[in-house]
Amino acid sequence: MERNIRVRELDSRPMEQREIELVERKGIGHPDTLCDGVAESVMRALSQEYLDRFGSVLHHNTDEAQLVAGRSNPEFGGGEVIEPIYILIVGRATKEFQGEYVPTDSLALKAAREYIRDSLHNVDMETDVVVDVKIGEGSTDLKDVFELDDGEAPNANDTSFGVGYAPFSDTERTVYEIERGIYDDLRERNPAVGEDVKVMGKREGDTLDLTVAVASVSEHVDDVDGYVSLMDDVEEYVYGVAEEHTDCDVDVYLNTADDREEGSLYLTETGTSAEMGDDGSVGRGNRANGLITPGREMSLEAASGKNPFNHIGKIYNILAHDLAEDVAAEIEEVDEVGIKLLSQIGSPIDQPQVAAVNLHAEDGITSDIEYEAESIVDDGLEDVTSVTERIIRGDVSTF
Amino acid sequence: MERNIRVRELDSRPMEQREIELVERKGIGHPDTLCDGVAESVMRALSQEYLDRFGSVLHHNTDEAQLVAGRSNPEFGGGEVIEPIYILIVGRATKEFQGEYVPTDSLALKAAREYIRDSLHNVDMETDVVVDVKIGEGSTDLKDVFELDDGEAPNANDTSFGVGYAPFSDTERTVYEIERGIYDDLRERNPAVGEDVKVMGKREGDTLDLTVAVASVSEHVDDVDGYVSLMDDVEEYVYGVAEEHTDCDVDVYLNTADDREEGSLYLTETGTSAEMGDDGSVGRGNRANGLITPGREMSLEAASGKNPFNHIGKIYNILAHDLAEDVAAEIEEVDEVGIKLLSQIGSPIDQPQVAAVNLHAEDGITSDIEYEAESIVDDGLEDVTSVTERIIRGDVSTF
Amino acid sequence: MERNIRVRELDSRPMEQREIELVERKGIGHPDTLCDGVAESVMRALSQEYLDRFGSVLHHNTDEAQLVAGRSNPEFGGGEVIEPIYILIVGRATKEFQGEYVPTDSLALKAAREYIRDSLHNVDMETDVVVDVKIGEGSTDLKDVFELDDGEAPNANDTSFGVGYAPFSDTERTVYEIERGIYDDLRERNPAVGEDVKVMGKREGDTLDLTVAVASVSEHVDDVDGYVSLMDDVEEYVYGVAEEHTDCDVDVYLNTADDREEGSLYLTETGTSAEMGDDGSVGRGNRANGLITPGREMSLEAASGKNPFNHIGKIYNILAHDLAEDVAAEIEEVDEVGIKLLSQIGSPIDQPQVAAVNLHAEDGITSDIEYEAESIVDDGLEDVTSVTERIIRGDVSTF
Amino acid sequence: MERNIRVRELDSRPMEQREIELVERKGIGHPDTLCDGVAESVMRALSQEYLDRFGSVLHHNTDEAQLVAGRSNPEFGGGEVIEPIYILIVGRATKEFQGEYVPTDSLALKAAREYIRDSLHNVDMETDVVVDVKIGEGSTDLKDVFELDDGEAPNANDTSFGVGYAPFSDTERTVYEIERGIYDDLRERNPAVGEDVKVMGKREGDTLDLTVAVASVSEHVDDVDGYVSLMDDVEEYVYGVAEEHTDCDVDVYLNTADDREEGSLYLTETGTSAEMGDDGSVGRGNRANGLITPGREMSLEAASGKNPFNHIGKIYNILAHDLAEDVAAEIEEVDEVGIKLLSQIGSPIDQPQVAAVNLHAEDGITSDIEYEAESIVDDGLEDVTSVTERIIRGDVSTF
Questions:
Q1: C304 contact partners, CB below 8 Å, separation of at least 6
Q2: pTM of this prediction?
Q3: Mean pLDDT for all residues in chain B
Q4: Which residues from chain A sit within 8 angstroms of residue D116, using beta carbons?
Q5: C-alpha distances in angstroms, C131 versus B351, C126, C280?
Q6: pLDDT score at A20
Q7: DSSP 8-state assignment for residue C149
Q8: ipTM, 2 dp
């Protein structure tokens, strides 16, 4: 069956040409992102377990982790967590299938604890975090069973949609890479750098203001001087990353809530503000491409934790993003492309109601461009089940 | 101090001129919206209590309610809720001030229970819902105390932003009014109509597809025929509302997940799917204007439950929406306007970093238009504290 | 089959002849007793529901309610509950039988809320108490189904025992009646009297010291004078009850933890100390006869909340108490009697391993006495299922 | 001040002379005992922390742990835990003192997790158990601060009592040693032996029936034959221990709920029935001497988790037991002794209202015996604070 793919001109001015641009990224250690990560790791654990047991993925959605902040008393050289962070895993899963029980709650508990332990260097799972589980019984109809191998696209679970775009603007790239660099690079080299990082970029014309918050880890900060020196390093690092990705004039505002005179600093025990007052939940932070971009088309879907085989809000957001990247990469003339995929409940997910491809090319959309874009999207939809596989393998990030 | 207000041309094609438009509204009884409502009612109760006791609003944010779905066994003529819905109120509040305890948890409990009882006609608070509370101690610095009367704008709690636009497109208006009509009008006349309503509008050119889900209340539905007849009424009602608000060709798809042959219908005990498998949380549904509009600029901020006096993500989203409505209403030439307000942490909230006003006028932006728009926005910012008052009085909806 | 009933002389000196006697009763509003009451009311609700649906009682045990104290700020004339009391209903129940779901959790929630509301005049269920439920799925084998009508005794669920004795000593009677009087009589006449009452009696020879704690309800106490006057009334009342039931010299010590100089008084909002720091759980208070009597044989079984048809720890404790009362009442010569019933797991509960009847008669145990005692116990065991009926009807108290 | 110590003849026939005797012990892995252990380990952690920080023990009581059973699917060779066991730590503690925060909740979490891990060889803390904390703020008045060194006895927190006796009867010794042997000896040699052991002894005249339940660990049991062989070993072991401690004719009934024909065996994953339906809470199992002895004087006090410096229900139960052991050991003529200690709220705990010493000596109580018994009890009360030290060091078991 032919797919309803429509290639049109962008509805908006390309991002680089707009005067004001706002972009945000909440880092891995931000309470909302932690919840996304927990939800997604629980989903992966369950999917894999279903595959191992039954050769197919059964119905589940674990997209509602709730984090209740703890209380801490950070001090230079090391203070303490007073009340543990509380994380409640919420969702639905198939707990019994073909007469066999699946230990969904135990698996979820383990996956969540592992995820938190792996993501935060300075958290002590014996004292700092309580993980609790409320996963309801979901039912798996025979028609819901998804077998990876048979290559047939499952039916959409809802009438919903996904959106994506490409490429990142310079501002977006800058914001994204700053957090990634701090987490993957700077933090590995400097144990005083925490995982709770928040980057907000505001570009006005050629000026980019970067408001950055980075938690420090008190055990590795001896005193105010140590803190100041640490933040100098972070600032320098941020300027360095920015320089690589943007030609704008950059101003960095780091930990603006600090009041160094009063000794009010962003000091934590665990590297995350979840320890002292910041609650979190799934789907309130980064979109599937890792950013919050109010000037772009965005879905409000919380992709993290949703099942990877027929949940449209998850699959189409990931796929739209991937297809946009492919279009932008493979068609030289395309400066910017946005893709919207709209499902029809009950129809195979490789047959969206509409795949709307909006793009901008300097010299207009030629029939070649149109044909190429259509082909890329068509192939991508044909191969939609590979998204499922990649999600389960953990090759796709949803935050 | 002069405010940084910038009036420019829209970055996007006006919505009515775009070929594809997607709009969604989750009704009052949707699990996510229930959480928004609980969070906001708890916030109002606390704000009012602080005012009554101290003449000022103290620090709090109760924006993280988590709903864990129950389990039910709906039957024609009335079945039963088997496992209650569980709602956890999460947040921070000032529990002690000037030596006086504030019963924040008890107030929150009461406000949440009242809200659920008022919002859902068919819920029995003695059997169907458990409301639990985990509100942490937040601290109120003297500088954080907000006195309504003194007219001075408080300082922003964060570097964040709000966005708004006006007017609603026909599609948006249609989607919005359908849910409002079903809840406020149809439901009052027909007790079989539940509160969990979801409306998704997809306009392609001049064709508007409305995918509508409406829960029925089993006690008032005798059998399949009763259900079919009820849904016929709902469908007729939806067509009626649509006709008032759009000139598109309208197709309504009602409860598409039903399988009438197999007796799989959207039957509930309480009027909400929260009773049987749909979890919910704050900030995952409607934006402050009541809609989810991926084609518009959107903030991901969960406005509901945030404190009403210095939480930028709440105040600026509401204000941007209001100002956009004022500009669209008062300046005849303006077809569409989008407003972005960006705060500076620590600066008074009536002095945003930038207020970006993007608008479209058939014949271009004249200096008169520019001046008028600036004035409206300037006045609105000057009067920002009135937003706080209106939030506390419950005159502003955040969902 | 003949029953193994053994009548022997008491192993202990009759209580009235001992020099030291300690007796305690925790009143209805004491946190532990509240939990007993919640557990028992949940059990009754479930039993009745099973009977109504299936004509038989299915497997369940709801004997583990846990109460976590709230926090309050009592003030003369009325203060407030700051943090609600949290009650977690814990247990096992049959949630599905013969293809039908039983709304065990919703029923439990309702029964518990009703019980608390009925037991405490001054509690506001909208603000002062959170009731939560964690009832696990228990399985009902066919052999476990208990039909009231068929008259056949079910098999014991365990090798366990029950103990009882009669009559109450004067001290026991006094302690018991003081609490009963304060709750049923004085409290009805004086709204300032709370439900949390604790009575400890210590008799040394002919001197009975009564240490009594009685919560006052702040709304109905205007000031210190009001409190003093209230406590004078309570004290007078206690002396009055004591006079009726004992010939000892009585000394009453009322609210000994008060420090009137420092204004430290036993003032509460709700009538129970559960509002401000006293946690509670099932089975830590009164035995099935309503008392704690370290000098008597006691079972540690938490009778409250256990299923009423084959749970030995419940049924045998109640039955042993009843049979002892019958023996003491019907056989004139018997001054005191203690009964122990020991079950054999898997054997019918009307066939205990042994029914040990130890009694004291002024002139020794004649064969007539022995025969009469045996007959009473034999008849009681024959009719054991009537205990089940009485439990379900609420005619038997377990605390 | 002279102490009110009264030495009298026993009120009961010495236990060895009674015809029927019932004794029970719930092993370390029984859900109730697990809760006792958690409560006590949390208490020790807090006491030690207070000592380390302030040189004195501050007010706390953590005596209300609640265990909600999990769900498991045990299979020969290893099955799985499906739903984790949930343990809620409940209590009060001083969270702030002299301006310093004490991380009570984090400490409690750690202590509880360590205790469970140490007590159960086969539990996986990452998947099998959720530990949660609800510890309320308790206040420490200056008068409540207990300094170990100053040697002064603190005041009693309540009018309450403790009871103890010595020596163990042969039946008691047998029951006690069977569980101790299985846990400390047999389990170390045979990994298939679980920690959830329950021993009930019923002596009628010279016949001792031992009803023993011992969980097996499925990973180390290959099949029914393996199970049968394991239970043969356990049975032999039990007979062996019994032989050492009693001259009665012994009959052992092992795992009487098993139905080997139907394959219904006492198979577990973790070694405890808490994994599959048996809830637990503090104070429902063994008394401070490690036994449940309905024929003895017993206190219902839940000693575990209570603060070790002024909680009478804890200290007097432990002390009464110790003093009884001393009297029985040091005064050759004494066959049996029972001790009751009754406090006076607000009075120093080394000055009980009465210390009642009831004992039996073959040839009556001589003045020498009386004098010696008084001296032992007097010295013990003088040295009451050493009980506190021993509790904190973990040298005293309360279960």
A1: C35, C36, C37, C39, C40, C43, C63, C282, C283, C398, C399
A2: 0.96
A3: 95
A4: none
A5: 47, 11, 14
A6: 94
A7: T
A8: 0.95
Q: Please name the helix (run of DSSP H) or strand (run of DSSP E) that holds residue B215, with its range, or none.
A: strand B207-217
One-letter amino acid for residue C351 of the chain: Q
CA D220 to chain A, closest CA, distance in angstroms equals 20
Q: What is the DSSP letter of A218?
A: G
Distance from CA of A93 to the nearest CA of B (A): 10
Cross-chain Cβ contact B66/A64 below 8 Å = yes
Mutate which: B94, B300, B317, B359, vs A, most A CBs within 10 A: B300
* Domain spanning D16-25+169-280, CATH architecture: 2-Layer Sandwich (3.30)
* Residues A124-161 pLDDT 10s: 999 999 999 999 987 666 556 677 666 688 988 888 89
Q: Which two tokens stand for residue B118?
A: 């008022």
Closest CA to C276 of C114, C80, C77, C24: C80
> Do D254 and D238 form a contact (C-beta atoms < 8 A)?
yes
Name A19's Cβ contacts closer than 8 Å, sequence gap at least 6: A204, A205, B6, B8, B356
Q: How many of the other CB atoms lie within 10 Å of CB of C109?
A: 28
C-beta of residue C328 within 8 angstroms of C-beta of residue C168:
no
d(CA B369, CA B332): 9
Contact C155, C347 (CB under 8 A): yes
Q: How confident is the model at residue A92 (pLDDT cuts 50, 70, 90)?
A: very high
Rounded to the nearest 5°, which phi and psi values hold at B220? -105, 15
D64 with C66: Cβ contact below 8 A: yes
Radius of gyration of chain B (CA): 22
> What sign has the CA pseudo-torsion C106, C109, C113, C118?
positive
For B398, the token pair is 């955040």
Q: Is D82–A101 a contact, with Cβ atoms under 8 angstroms apart?
A: yes
Three-state DSSP at B199 gives strand
Q: Give residue-wise pLDDT tens across range D24-33.
A: 999 999 999 9
To the nearest whole angstrom, how far is the Cα of D95 from the nearest Cα of chain A? 9
Q: Among B83, B97, B102, pick the best mutation site for testing chain C contact (most C Cβ within 10 A).
A: B83
Q: Which run of H or E residues covers position B195?
A: strand B193-204
Q: How far is A249 from chain B (nearest CA, A)?
A: 17
Helices A224-245 and A170-181 pack at an angle, to 10 degrees, of 140
Contact B250, B210 (CB under 8 A): yes
- Contact partners of A by the rule of 3+ C-beta pairs under 8 A? B, D
Q: How far apart are the first and last CA of chain A?
A: 33
- Closest residue in B to C131 (Cα) is B130
Chain CA centroid to CA D98, Å: 34
pLDDT digits (tens, 9 = 90+) for C221-247: 999 999 999 999 999 999 999 999 999
Domain residue ranges in chain B: 16-25+169-280
* Lowest mean per-residue pLDDT among A113-122, D51-60, D229-238: D51-60
Q: Give the E-state strand segments of chain D in sequence order.
A: 5-9, 20-26, 60-61, 66-68, 71-73, 80-83, 85-94, 96-97, 100-101, 129-138, 161-166, 193-204, 207-217, 249-254, 267-268, 280-281, 334-342, 354-361
Alpha-carbon gap, residue D283 to D35, rounded angstroms: 8
Report the pLDDT value the prediction gives residue D325, as an integer from 0 to 100: 98
b (16+ CB within 10 A) / e for B127-153? bbbbbbbbbbebebeeebbbebeeeeb
C297 neighbourhood in chain D, CB within 8 Å: 294-295
Pairing of the two strands B280-281 and C161-166: unpaired
The reply to whether residue B130 touches residue C131, judged by beta carbons under 8 angstroms, is yes
- Cα–Cα distance measured from residue D338 to residue D328, given in angstroms and rounded to the nearest whole number: 10
Residues A281, B66: C-beta atoms closer than 8 Å: yes
